[in-house]
Amino acid sequence: DGSIKNANISLLISNNLDSGAVSFARQKEIDVFILNTRRYPDQDKYQTTLIEKLKGVSPDLIVLAGYMKLIPSKIIPIYNQKIINIHPGKLPDFGGKGFYGINIHKAVINSGIRETAVTIHYVNEEYDKGIIIHEEKISIKEGESPESLANRVLLVEHKIYPKIINKLLNN
Predict the structure, then answer these.
(1) How many Å apart are CA 67 and CA 93, to the nearest integer?
(2) Could you give the CA distance from residue 75 to residue 166 in angstroms, rounded to a whole number?
(3) In angstroms, rounded to a whole number, what is the distance separating the alpha carbons of residues 155 and 77?
(4) Which residues form the catalytic set?
Protein backbone atom coordinates (compact mmCIF):
# COMPACT_ATOMS: atom_id res chain seq x y z
CA ASP A 1 0.00 0.00 0.00
CA GLY A 2 3.05 2.30 -0.05
CA SER A 3 3.11 3.03 3.65
CA ILE A 4 6.05 2.28 5.87
CA LYS A 5 5.20 0.52 9.13
CA ASN A 6 6.72 1.20 12.56
CA ALA A 7 8.82 4.06 11.26
CA ASN A 8 9.19 7.75 11.82
CA ILE A 9 10.81 10.15 9.38
CA SER A 10 13.01 12.24 11.65
CA LEU A 11 14.63 14.54 9.14
CA LEU A 12 14.76 15.39 5.46
CA ILE A 13 18.13 16.58 4.22
CA SER A 14 18.13 18.11 0.76
CA ASN A 15 20.46 20.20 -1.32
CA ASN A 16 17.49 21.82 -3.08
CA LEU A 17 15.23 24.19 -1.14
CA ASP A 18 12.70 24.15 -4.00
CA SER A 19 12.30 20.37 -4.31
CA GLY A 20 8.94 18.66 -4.02
CA ALA A 21 10.32 16.55 -1.17
CA VAL A 22 10.99 19.70 0.89
CA SER A 23 7.44 20.97 0.28
CA PHE A 24 6.01 17.56 1.20
CA ALA A 25 8.11 17.33 4.39
CA ARG A 26 7.06 20.81 5.51
CA GLN A 27 3.38 19.96 4.92
CA LYS A 28 3.82 16.84 7.09
CA GLU A 29 5.76 18.82 9.74
CA ILE A 30 8.94 16.82 9.18
CA ASP A 31 12.14 18.67 10.04
CA VAL A 32 14.01 19.88 6.97
CA PHE A 33 17.67 20.79 6.67
CA ILE A 34 19.16 22.27 3.52
CA LEU A 35 22.76 21.21 2.96
CA ASN A 36 24.50 22.37 -0.18
CA THR A 37 27.82 23.81 -1.25
CA ARG A 38 26.36 27.31 -1.49
CA ARG A 39 25.59 27.25 2.24
CA TYR A 40 28.66 25.16 3.16
CA PRO A 41 31.39 25.78 0.56
CA ASP A 42 34.08 24.34 2.86
CA GLN A 43 34.10 20.54 2.37
CA ASP A 44 35.12 19.79 5.98
CA LYS A 45 32.36 22.02 7.38
CA TYR A 46 29.89 20.40 4.96
CA GLN A 47 30.80 16.89 6.15
CA THR A 48 30.93 17.85 9.83
CA THR A 49 27.51 19.51 9.59
CA LEU A 50 26.03 16.46 7.87
CA ILE A 51 27.49 14.11 10.50
CA GLU A 52 26.15 16.32 13.32
CA LYS A 53 22.65 16.43 11.77
CA LEU A 54 22.57 12.67 11.32
CA LYS A 55 23.88 11.95 14.82
CA GLY A 56 21.19 14.29 16.16
CA VAL A 57 18.44 11.99 14.85
CA SER A 58 20.23 8.60 15.22
CA PRO A 59 18.71 7.07 12.09
CA ASP A 60 18.14 3.35 11.80
CA LEU A 61 18.09 3.80 8.04
CA ILE A 62 19.04 6.64 5.69
CA VAL A 63 16.91 6.53 2.55
CA LEU A 64 18.08 8.36 -0.56
CA ALA A 65 15.52 9.30 -3.20
CA GLY A 66 16.50 11.56 -6.05
CA TYR A 67 19.72 12.51 -4.27
CA MET A 68 22.39 12.65 -6.94
CA LYS A 69 25.43 13.75 -4.93
CA LEU A 70 28.10 11.35 -3.76
CA ILE A 71 27.75 10.70 -0.03
CA PRO A 72 30.89 12.05 1.68
CA SER A 73 33.38 9.27 2.44
CA LYS A 74 33.44 10.15 6.17
CA ILE A 75 29.72 9.25 6.41
CA ILE A 76 29.89 5.76 4.89
CA PRO A 77 31.75 3.95 7.74
CA ILE A 78 29.57 5.62 10.40
CA TYR A 79 26.39 4.35 8.73
CA ASN A 80 27.72 1.19 7.07
CA GLN A 81 24.81 -0.66 5.43
CA LYS A 82 22.33 1.85 6.82
CA ILE A 83 22.22 4.06 3.71
CA ILE A 84 20.13 2.86 0.79
CA ASN A 85 19.44 4.26 -2.65
CA ILE A 86 17.06 3.44 -5.46
CA HIS A 87 18.27 3.46 -9.05
CA PRO A 88 16.00 3.40 -12.12
CA GLY A 89 18.17 0.94 -14.02
CA LYS A 90 19.90 -2.41 -13.79
CA LEU A 91 23.17 -2.22 -11.88
CA PRO A 92 26.02 -2.31 -12.59
CA ASP A 93 25.21 -2.13 -16.32
CA PHE A 94 23.39 1.21 -16.26
CA GLY A 95 24.90 2.94 -13.26
CA GLY A 96 27.71 5.28 -12.35
CA LYS A 97 28.60 8.78 -13.41
CA GLY A 98 26.24 10.20 -16.03
CA PHE A 99 23.59 7.52 -15.51
CA TYR A 100 20.70 9.51 -14.10
CA GLY A 101 17.25 10.60 -15.23
CA ILE A 102 16.34 10.09 -18.85
CA ASN A 103 19.99 9.26 -19.71
CA ILE A 104 19.52 5.82 -18.15
CA HIS A 105 16.40 5.05 -20.16
CA LYS A 106 17.95 6.27 -23.42
CA ALA A 107 20.96 4.03 -22.81
CA VAL A 108 18.72 1.06 -22.00
CA ILE A 109 16.62 1.52 -25.17
CA ASN A 110 19.74 2.09 -27.33
CA SER A 111 21.39 -1.07 -25.95
CA GLY A 112 18.66 -3.26 -27.41
CA ILE A 113 18.18 -5.29 -24.23
CA ARG A 114 14.68 -6.62 -23.53
CA GLU A 115 14.64 -6.06 -19.79
CA THR A 116 15.66 -3.35 -17.35
CA ALA A 117 15.28 -3.11 -13.59
CA VAL A 118 14.74 -0.90 -10.60
CA THR A 119 17.67 -1.56 -8.29
CA ILE A 120 17.81 -0.83 -4.57
CA HIS A 121 21.29 -0.95 -3.11
CA TYR A 122 23.40 -0.01 -0.13
CA VAL A 123 25.42 3.15 -0.64
CA ASN A 124 29.20 3.06 -0.56
CA GLU A 125 31.97 5.47 -1.63
CA GLU A 126 31.25 5.07 -5.37
CA TYR A 127 28.17 5.92 -7.45
CA ASP A 128 25.84 2.91 -7.74
CA LYS A 129 28.46 0.37 -6.62
CA GLY A 130 27.07 -0.75 -3.25
CA ILE A 131 25.71 -4.21 -2.50
CA ILE A 132 22.41 -4.83 -4.28
CA ILE A 133 19.49 -5.40 -1.90
CA HIS A 134 16.73 -5.91 -4.45
CA GLU A 135 16.29 -5.88 -8.21
CA GLU A 136 12.79 -5.55 -9.68
CA LYS A 137 12.83 -6.54 -13.36
CA ILE A 138 10.82 -4.64 -15.97
CA SER A 139 10.25 -5.82 -19.54
CA ILE A 140 10.88 -3.33 -22.31
CA LYS A 141 8.00 -3.04 -24.76
CA GLU A 142 8.51 -3.16 -28.53
CA GLY A 143 9.07 0.37 -29.87
CA GLU A 144 9.12 1.88 -26.38
CA SER A 145 10.42 5.42 -25.95
CA PRO A 146 12.80 6.43 -23.16
CA GLU A 147 10.02 8.66 -21.78
CA SER A 148 7.41 5.88 -21.61
CA LEU A 149 9.98 3.56 -20.03
CA ALA A 150 10.87 6.27 -17.49
CA ASN A 151 7.18 6.60 -16.53
CA ARG A 152 6.75 2.85 -16.09
CA VAL A 153 9.98 2.56 -14.10
CA LEU A 154 8.89 5.39 -11.78
CA LEU A 155 5.63 3.57 -10.99
CA VAL A 156 7.63 0.47 -10.04
CA GLU A 157 10.01 2.57 -7.92
CA HIS A 158 7.09 4.03 -5.95
CA LYS A 159 5.68 0.55 -5.35
CA ILE A 160 8.86 -1.34 -4.48
CA TYR A 161 10.86 1.17 -2.38
CA PRO A 162 8.41 1.25 0.55
CA LYS A 163 8.26 -2.58 0.53
CA ILE A 164 12.05 -2.89 0.77
CA ILE A 165 12.27 -0.13 3.41
CA ASN A 166 9.65 -2.02 5.45
CA LYS A 167 11.63 -5.23 5.10
CA LEU A 168 14.87 -3.59 6.21
CA LEU A 169 13.30 -1.82 9.18
CA ASN A 170 10.95 -4.52 10.40
CA ASN A 171 12.85 -7.79 9.92
Answers:
(1) 20
(2) 23
(3) 32
(4) 87
